[in-house]
Amino acid sequence: MQNSINQRWLLASYPQGMPVAANWVMDAQPVPDPGPGQIVVKAKWLSVDPYMRGRMSPAANYTKGVAVGEVMHGGGVGEVAVSNHPAWKPGDIAESMSMGWQEWSVLTPEIVGPAGVNKIDPKLAPIQSSLSWLGMPGMTAYFGLLDVAQPRPADTIVVSAASGAVGQLVGQIAKLAGCRAVAIAGDDRKLQWCREIGFDAGINYKKTADLAAAVKEACPKGVDIFFDNTAGPIHDAVMKNLNIGARVVICGRISLAAQTGKPDIGERFMGHLIVTRASIHGFLVFDWWHRREEALRLSQRGTVTGKSNSKKMCSKASSGCPKRFCGYLKAKISASRS
Questions:
Q1: Exposure string over 154-177, b if 16+ CB within 10 A, otherwise e
Q2: What pLDDT, in 10s, does the model give residues 36-54?
């Protein structure tokens, strides 16, 4: 595209421990023209998510990571500027996990799965909602809870990082399923938000000397479902309170972001799992991507609510994605360790 420059955040080095802003470098290149069947999208919102820390490593993972010198992976939503695809026209709103941390993206709508492109109706909700409750976090909550944890009425569910993009939706869906929902977060304001959207109880682990005892007090009948977004000491505390037949969904491990590639050292619960006959499930939303529309229909009916500032997003690729991402991780880790 003539006279258009694309500002991009490239990975400059792999982090050793916590990422820092110096792990990225800003690059500027001409915006390429789209090929046959492609569209050019100018980003309006770019997301920062915990999963991105795992992509910043040369180690094997569930998908290819970001190589040094490549555009940082990430989802985004923006406006189509040029289209060589018959189903897309300039002015359409496009969302894709393939946009990356850059101002302009050349996307291929015919690709299926997470790397594909979704057309967004701006009349349904603010377009940035497609990166939160009407997007990947919403799908994560829906399938992780309903398909994997399989809640039953009167179950007690504990959600770590409960005020986050995924956790807040898990709690709301749990209430729709007739469960009792208990939030774990590290800030009283976050817990107040959790109560406003329907959680029955909350634990501020930054103010709790004995977290396992606090979980027991908040869950006097035990824990039937644990939706784990943090790992670490929170995980250990909840595991000590599982009921017979409990289901544990391992969705995230944000508390270990500074230890990527290192052993996860903590308590072992093998004996306890035998006694409780509990199950632990690792969960990746991308395995359910073919059912995306099913999950989003629930949210589009307005039965769950996303809070606009529950995710950290950047309005422009040049406005500080690395700084926001590092700050987001630092806040999450310092809270989960307190």
A1: ebbbbbbbbbbbbbbbbbbbbbeb
A2: 999 999 999 998 888 888 8
Tens-digit pLDDT profile for residues 126-178: 999 999 889 999 999 999 999 999 999 999 999 999 998 899 999 999 999 99
State the pairing for strand pair 156-160/279-282. unpaired
Provide the CA 116 distance to its chain's centre, in angstroms: 18
Whole-number Å distance between alpha carbons of 286 and 298:
18
- Is the whole model's pTM more than 0.70, yes or no? yes
Please, what is the angle between helix 188-196 and helix 167-176, to 10°?
30
How many residues does the structure list for the chain?
338
